[in-house]
Amino acid sequence: MRTCYVLVAAAVACLPQLAPAADPSLKKGDKIVFLGDSITAGGVAPKGYVTLVKNAIAEKHKDLGVEVVGAGISGNKVPDLQRRLEKDVLAKKPTVVVIYIGINDVWHGEKDPARGTPKDKYEAGLKEIIGKIKDAGARVVLCTPTVIGEKKIGTNALDAKLDEYAEISRKVAKETGAQLCDLRKAFSDYLAKNNTDDKEKGVLTTDRVHLNDAGNKLVAETILATIDK
After folding, report:
1. What whole-number distance in Å separates Cα of residue 213 and Cα of residue 206?
2. Residues 11-55: tens digit of each pLDDT
3. Lower CB count within 10 Å: N or C terminus of the chain?
4. Where residue 33 sits, what CATH number does that domain have?
C-alpha cells in the first residue's frame, strides 16, 4: 500500500500546475477596457453600464485613479473582436479587459446561419483573444451573453442556442484562467423573480436585447462584483 501512495504522489507531482487566479481587486493606476458590441457601445452613455461602473469605482476608490475605456462597436461578433483587438484594446495598454460578447454570434444566425458564428469558431476566437490579452499582462473578465427575449428562460426562440454559447464561454473562462462574469445567470435569476407578466421585453431590455436603465444597472453591479471583490 505504501508503494501505491508513493506512485500516486509522484503522479500528482507531475501534473501541470494551474496558474494562480488573478487578484480580483482593483489597484492604483488600473486601466479597464470594455470590449464588446452595441450593448457596450451604448454602455458609455450617461446611464450606460460602462459609465455606471466608472462612477462607482471613482466613488469607492478615489485614490486609485482607475481609468475606464469603452471599446464597443455595434454588430460585432467574436471574429470582429479578433480583428480589432490590437488597435482597440492592446494598444491602449489595459490592466483589465472585460469582454461582453455573444449575442450577435447567435442572433445574426437566426435567419441566415452564415451570418452567425459557428460554435467552434466562437470558442477558438475567445481563446485567442484571451490568450493575447493575458500575454500582454492584463487580467481578463469574460462575460456570458445575456438574453434575446425576456420571457421565461427556455421559452424564447433562441434560448437553447444562447445557452449553448453561454456554456462555451463558461468553459473557455475555466480553461484559460479568465475570470467569469455570468451575466446570463444574473439575467435569468432576475427575470425569474421580476418578470411576473412574462414580458418579451421591457424589464431589463428595450427590444429583447439592448439594455434599459434596469438592465444597465444589473450588468454594472454584476461586473463590479467580479472585478473588485
Report:
1. 9
2. 334 434 444 455 679 999 999 999 999 999 999 999 999 999 999
3. N
4. 3.40.50.1110
